[in-house]
Design a protein that fits this description.
Subcellular location: Endomembrane system
Number of helices: 16
CATH class: Mainly Alpha
Largest sheet: none
InterPro entries: AA_transpt_TM
CATH topology: Amino acid/polyamine transporter I
Radius of gyration: 22 Å
CATH superfamily: Amino acid/polyamine transporter I
Order of helices and strands: HHHHHHHHHHHHHHHH
Structural class: mainly alpha
Keywords: Amino-acid transport, Auxin signaling pathway, Membrane, Symport, Transmembrane, Transmembrane helix, Transport
Helix content: 55-70%
GO biological process, one term: amino acid transport
Protein name: Amino acid transporter transmembrane domain-containing protein
Shape: globular
Number of domains: 1
Oligomer: single chain
Amino acid sequence: MGTVAPNLMEVSAGRDARSPPAKVLDAGALFVLKSQGSWLHCGYHLTTSIVAPVILTLPFALALLGWVGGLICLALAALVTFYSYNLLSLVLEHQEKLGHRQLRFRDMARDILGPGWGKYFVGPLQFWICYGAVIACTLLGGQSLKFIYLLSYPDGTMKLHQFIIIFGTVPLVLAQMPSFHSLRHINLVSLILCLAFSTCATAGSIYIGHSDNAPRREYTVKGSAKDRSFGIFNAISIIATTYASGIIPEIQATLAPPVKGKMFKALCVCYSVIVTTYFSVAISGYWAFGNQAMGTVLSNFMGDGKPLLPTWFLLMTNVFTLLQVSAVTVVYLQPTNEVFEKKFADPKKDQFSVRNVVPRLILRSLSVIVATTFAAMLPFFGDIMALFGAFGCIPLDFILPMIFYNVTFKPSKRSLIFWVNTSIAGVSFLLVGVGAVASVRQIVLDAKTYRLFANM
């Protein structure tokens, strides 16, 4: 096979004369984080990484907080994450001007905070959060398949782990897409699908709320004072996780340079979808079911084992959910793919040479198989992900962007932006501790249902 010359790190034309020379890209950056996309493509990637079927848990979060607290937390999380992701983008743009185009979260941590932060904290944390998301999405895909099966065959005997394995074949194929950029058309479809299933969830809630089968609605927060207190922190963790991405630098890396201003446009695309879907699902679901809202609003659509909506409507909603979660799974495989390419691919050879295709095929397939196996073994993985979310999503999306900005731009300690960033980071740090305690408590409460390959 012929060889190709390694690409040089792209930098803006107006680079500082004192900046270091451009670096040769490693195989992970060159092949997976291929910088060829437009701001619109970036918007598709962002939307898929954030807007996922986990938003169907928002009515349950509102049930733990009530109308006022729930809507305030929902709006604050949107504002803070939009602000946070813009800060990350500004830091990345600034580093590009200096000749340090950072393509990964761990690159940012290494260059801004020091090599130890990237290698021992941010890198491993992001890897396990993203791979955990792959396992969780695989589990959710299997649950959607089982739901569709039981709607069609109420007395069916197939088990959850069988559906998880069936679903796992989809990311097994899609994982072979060579680069993040190559997912742009899939993620456009994903954007449309998330609008579709959230519209179905909203319409279903409104229909049930106005029907003769409408449940009795109460909007008081249930439980003892202790349960309500822990419920508040659980709800905040749920809302924070629904807005989390954890791969903003990797998504920005898919932009063709120069990147200035493009990420803001992409975030506007993403957050227009977020505002449309999050608030419609949360408000309609909580309005329809009150404090009886379950972990996912689709569970409320079944009533006491009897569908409250036409079977075709439930099937359609779950098919939309199933297809969209497939795209989310593949997006969160990208950090794993990038690590594999960096370690085992040869950047001096063509991306589609035998030397690079064979290890890519083997390692990506093994990655999906292992995630599918964990999902089948641990159908209670959602509880574990809540703990991971407290330790991972909040630091990556709410704390580190504030620190990166303050360290990079060094705003005056008397300035508003310094204190806004410091306050957000401080409050988020407290939420890490409290959220972790609440998550561990929930794991203990649910421990009686924990068994390998449980048919939940």
